[in-house]
Amino acid sequence: MKKHFLLFTAILLLFGSFSACKKGGQCEPIDIYPIINNPQATLVNTKWKLVGFVDVAEKCLKNAEPTDCEQCYTLTFYADTLFGKTTTNSLQALYKADYETTDIQIFDGIMTEVGENADGYRYSDALFSVRSFSLQEKELRLYYNDNKEFLLFKLQ
Question: Which of 10, 11, 33, 151 has a C-alpha 20 to 30 A away from that of 87?
Answer without folding.
Answer: 33
